[in-house]
Amino acid sequence: MRQRHGEIQSKGAEVVAISFEPRDRLFQLTRQLQLPYPILSDPERDVYLAYGLSQGAWAKVFSLKTIWTYVKHFARGRRYQHAASDWRQLGGDFILDEDGIVIFEHRGQTPVDRPTVASLIAELGG
Questions:
Q1: Across the chain, how many H-helices and E-strands are there?
Q2: Residue 28 belongs to what domain range?
Q3: Would strands 39-41 and 17-19 be described as parallel, antiparallel, or unpaired?
Q4: How many domains does the chain have?
Q5: Which CATH number is 46's domain given?
Q6: pTM for this one?
């Protein structure tokens, strides 16, 4: 997402990430990863609930596919400290129009179930 942020903005869109991690952790993560977009803190998970994002079953959260994905990340030297994380909380990707109407939605079924950045950009059209 970071690498294609300019392309997303050229389509008139903005990226906003939402996490349930504490604000100070997100500030640190934004600086560490040099993210050009904000990550908002939702520790009460009000946004998660509003968008129907649930917790996954342990078997899905720690599936072979998920474990393999993390092994590949660690092999590339990527690290993520899950200080206060809830390993079972699943994420999602949503595109809203200028009126706040959801025009694309994807609710992850596992931690690695995410649409590609290219497919999200394609959803933006124009």
A1: 6, 4
A2: 5-124
A3: parallel
A4: 1
A5: 3.40.30.10
A6: 0.74
